[in-house]
Description:
Distance between the termini: 93 Å
Amino acid sequence: MKINTRLCRLIIAFFLMPPLCAAAKGKADTSEVKPLDTEWKIVVTKADGTALPASRASVATYWNRELERSIRYIRYRTRADGELEFYKTNEWLKSQTAAAKAVRTKQAERDALYFKGLANWQYRQQIKKIDADIQKLRETLNEAEETEPLIEPLPKFTLEGRNIPTGEFPEPPQTGAEYIYCVTHKADGFITSNLSVYHERIYIELRLWAMYSKSYIYSDSIIFSLEDMNEASDEIITRLIDAMTGVYPTSLTVAAAGRQDAVIVVDDEFAGQGESGIIPRSPGEAEVMIFEPGYETARWTTPLAEGERTSLTFMLSAIPTMGFDINTRREIAASVYSGALYVGEAPVHIVDSEEKNMTVNVVTKEGKTAGAVFKISENPITLNPTQPPPKGRVEKSRKGFYGAWGRLWLVVPLTWLAVGLSDSYVNAYNMAETRTQEQADRATIVYWAAGGVGVLAGIFLLESLVRFVWYGYQADRQATPLDK
């Protein structure tokens, strides 16, 4: 039978083409280029307050901390074309330099082979291998020269503020050492502040130095009285955030209606009590939490739109309370304690949240006590004070149980050994061809000794069980009941 080879080739190609195409497509999908420089780090330097009088020197420290607190809310920064070009050039030069150094190192390794005194066949083998490596490294160098790196246009914002061990801010750099300062701190820029007095008012000058421009790219100033410091700092920091992020900032205000002691937390950071004031933020989401003793905790996640101010006002709901009476049986005079807090002499009326369990103890002058744990309800609680058991009873019972348990495990191996010896003597006597009275007496003594040791083990076992039950009774004695 003659086989049509052309037809076979077409059939094979038909079945192999889809897998080959899928493999080629999968390989192309894995060549995704990841962006570089995904973070933008700023250093908040120590504010220069040397021009302030001694009575107002603390203003510089307050300003530093307020500036750092506000900037920490920033999440991302938008890079301009000039900044993207700077970082692209840097990364491009880094990749080319690394590839060129690798080629040079491998060439030096090739040159050094001549002086190693290798045999001709070894020398040729090593040269061939190194030449192949050099060829690959040259291809990598050519690829680095031709491929432009991708820079992240929206890097994540990070901040270096106070030094954790000392709590101090880093000193600003000297003039002319700004670039080295950023390289040392691995930062993309830093912020400097100068404070002085101008006609009994505070004057702040704020500047931002950026590594990509090698100069100060932003400066601003504001003058204010001490009474207006909060509003003035919010204003100048908002303008700084606008320039630093490249987007229109947003702001957030949070208030608890009628609750001046309510604690406000925004993104796990304390933002004030009763009312937060204006909080400058980057666009995105903010998590707000407000809590106060006696009120239900309020939680809310709100979106913050670019260039808009969001105001949130919360009405806290009071946790329901309930009153109940605490008294003693036969109205014995006693002091009443809620947990460890003294609340009065019995009978006493207590008001607390109906959602919690209450622990109450009463103590008489004679030292009699009683206690209970119960779910708060309107039902009165009547306790019967009794003389408490002597101190140390539980410890004494525990030591007695441990002693009996230890004695039991000392006797158990002896019992095992005695039973084994007894079986050996008895079997030896029974299997002996000639039996004597001395062998019979010895076997009898060993047999009854093993029995005695077994009885002793049983006594210790019974003692351990009894002491265990007694220990559990003493441990649970006078335990606090839980009312259903």
